[in-house]
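Can you give me the bound-state structure? Components:
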Amino acid sequence: MGELTLGVFPSLVGSMTLDFSFRLADAAMEKGHKVNMWLSGNAVMMAKKGQKAFKDYSHNEKKMKELMGKGMEITVCEACAEARGYHKEDTPEGMKRASMDWYLAKTVKTDRLLHIGGE
Amino acid sequence: MAAVNLLFVVQRPPYKSENARLALTHAIASQTAEIYMDDGDSVVPIVAFVGDGVLNAVKGQKAMERYGVTSTEMHIKSSLMIDMPIWVCKEDMERLGLKEDQMITHAEELGADLKTKFVSFAEIQKEMEGTNHLLFF
Amino acid sequence: MKLAVFLSDWDRTEATLERLKADKMGVILVGNGIYHAVLKAGGKDSPVLSTAGASFYALADDLETRGFTAANVNSKVKVVSYGDIVDLIMKDYEKTAWL
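Here's the bound-state model for the whole set.
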């Protein structure tokens, strides 16, 4: 089995690309692959706790936590988060915050990288 | 022990979205990535501007003066200062009517020796084939 | 190079795709990219489907989300699941590009 790293940059609300990212991660883990996810740019808001689920918006928090429970490593871009007023105390348990170099370092050992840029 | 090559391809123009800025800041972060890596491992980035993304490399940007934000120009110059290659696609410049004298060609004022490289898309394609990972912004 | 290219937009001209070359290329249509698999604007197939030598895939969930089914999909395009996309990334192609 291999290792897949997803770099995810699109918005939490307004684009369904985050939904795609989590479903792809789920499918990869189902097949036994290790998955890392880097949330950066507008995607950092995905990792802010206390989001309320509405039927009109994508809501991936439950899926994200489930995948973290299964071993997916998710790290949030610290500078991108702070710039959006999202601080360390807002981060869900088990989630890391790091500088952008974390993502670059992951590219060294990963078998595949899917970098999903912003919109 | 591995040196991993990363090609950042910027295809969108500046300021309307964060894409170009994030490409440059992530690429620049290669300088400090070793804290997360095993001894001897490294990442070696190149940033290539293609399509409308070549507009990021137009010189004379006054984003700091007008909006108080670091310009994409300054990030490009910072990249040159740390010897990170900056490539700009010549065909796309031509398509948009841009001449080299309108573009960021160097960062000598910051002490950079490296200069912007104006390349054909074929050269960028060749780099895509040789690189370990592609990151399109 | 074995390259999997992801397209998630319909209304952008993908000039980069037209210029990309690979020994083996897969174009994976997701999100609004699936419209390239089902629409015939002006009576013609999307130019994306003319990408030389490429194989084409469209994500079933994203087709169905947008009111289409496999029956609407251009015969050049294979309808795939998330699991299939994982296999394309991990087994069939070496690099990915999300345009």
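A couple of observations. Residues 3-116 of chain A form a domain with the Hypothetical Protein Ychn; Chain: A, fold (CATH 3.40.1260.10). The first helix of chain A runs from residue 17 to 30.
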